[in-house]
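Reminder to self: tokens first, then the designed residues, so the page reads top to bottom the way the pipeline ran.
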């Protein structure tokens, strides 16, 4: 049973013994009142009124699948942003607790660079040694070929093994070089953030 907006006061006065009433809007935007919600409007926004016509409860419209998906995506994004903010705060506190000046950040950077340089030099020395050994193998193989003799099988295996070792060492060298760049970039970013947090001054521990 449905009633138009103009009949609301009459309904309230005429049914004092009844409990609450409902208010809903149809697909044409017209407002209706009644003691029950028609099934076709059960999923739409509706209000429950007391016997005086005062809204005591409002139920929002049921979400469409697209709306639910958008709501879930928004909730996930909000959670991600909150987690990022917490992680940023944790890192900021760790930064302030670790250093008392920008100079200390530079010193930490230099210590890490020195360790990385030592590792890089060690690998470079290994690569140099392998390259020297490989050059010797190749000279022997070239001499055999020039003399019209086949390259010995074990010499061929030595050449392939040395080439493989050299390739791995060269990859290792490139990784250490990238790590040096990453160290510089990381500490530069920390110094800039430290400057933002302290206003360019010295933080107290």
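Designed residues (205 positions):
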């Amino acid at each position: 049973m449905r009633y138009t907006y103009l009949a609301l006061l009459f309904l309230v006065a005429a049914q004092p013994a009844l409990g609450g009433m409902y208010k809903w809007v149809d697909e044409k935007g017209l407002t209706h009142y009644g003691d029950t919600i028609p099934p076709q409007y059960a999923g739409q926004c509706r209000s429950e009124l007391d016997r005086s016509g005062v809204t005591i409860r409002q139920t929002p419209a049921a979400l469409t699948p697209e709306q639910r998906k958008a709501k879930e995506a928004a909730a996930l994004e909000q959670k991600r942003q909150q987690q990022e903010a917490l992680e940023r705060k944790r890192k900021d506190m760790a930064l302030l607790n670790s250093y008392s000046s920008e100079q200390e950040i530079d010193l930490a950077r230099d210590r890490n660079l020195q360790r990385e340089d030592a590792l890089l030099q060690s690998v470079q020395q290994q690569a140099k040694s392998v390259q020297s050994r490989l050059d010797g193998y190749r000279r022997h193989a070239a001499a055999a070929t020039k003399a019209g003799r086949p390259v010995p099988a074990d010499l061929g295996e030595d050449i392939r093994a040395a080439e493989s070792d050299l390739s791995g060492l060269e990859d290792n060298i490139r990784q250490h070089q990238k790590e040096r760049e990453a160290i510089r970039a990381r500490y530069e970013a920390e110094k800039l953030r430290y400057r933002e947090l302290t206003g360019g001054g010295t933080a107290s521990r």
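The first strand starts at residue 3 and ends at 4.
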